[in-house]
Amino acid sequence: MREITACQIKDTIKTLFININYEIGDDVLSSLESAVDREVSPVGKAILGQIIENDIIAKNERVPMCQDTGMAVVFAEVGQDVHITGGSFANAINEGVREAYSEGYLRKSIVSDPLFDRKNTGDNTPAIIYTDIVPGDKIKLTVTCKGFGSENMSRIKMMTPADGVDGVLDFIVKTVVEAGPNPCPPTIVGVCIGGTMDKAAQLAKLATIRPVGSHNSDPRYAELEAEALRRINESGVGPGGLGGRITCLAVNIESYPTHIAGMPVAVNICCHAARHGEAVI
Questions:
Q1: pTM score of the predicted model
Q2: What is the spatial distance between Cα 115 and Cα 111, in angstroms, rounded to a whole number?
């Protein structure tokens, strides 16, 4: 049994959330730079250039790349041979978020009640925490902060097996195209087909974290990713929603076993900032 302290978890979470708001991932930056060459619209090229410049300034000056520093989401893989000491796991994560959003000068956007009071919690907690117990004696923390310009454009549909590939493809493309400029395109689109309503939504969000340029290991799903991306980029929405070929940088599709009577499909849209990171303790 290996001991990991709540303080270690807190400090790791704090560092991750500060860094992902200051530094865009190399995979996303490379994709944006490549997109400039492929974009035919002068306005689209200019927008992509401004996005890249903004990301470089954020990294060099250690400031948030976007004013919406999002809702903190944590995917935790906790080894079954780990013993957490000095406090609770959830409290450690939330304290790390609290310190990150204070010390990192990140906007605090969370309200305590969704419908009635809508009073800001003042520290961007609580975080959304997904925990899986896995073999081993380590903890892997994968984090993202989800701005709601893109989150509000995400959709889930309880489809039926009869909808088939064409139905799934149409739903993915329609969701992204109808979102228009709202999610700050170019976007990264995470999709999950299968599971239950909640499982599909969880895995669709996790799919947005997959590196840009990677593909589903199943060639059938990889082909579906490529076709969805092609159709989305032929829609003409373009960077910033002002027209062009680069509406989306990647469509990442995951699947999960499901019930014989259903086929949930979740589409989680992520803005071009795509802020995420991971660490292993």
A1: 0.96
A2: 9
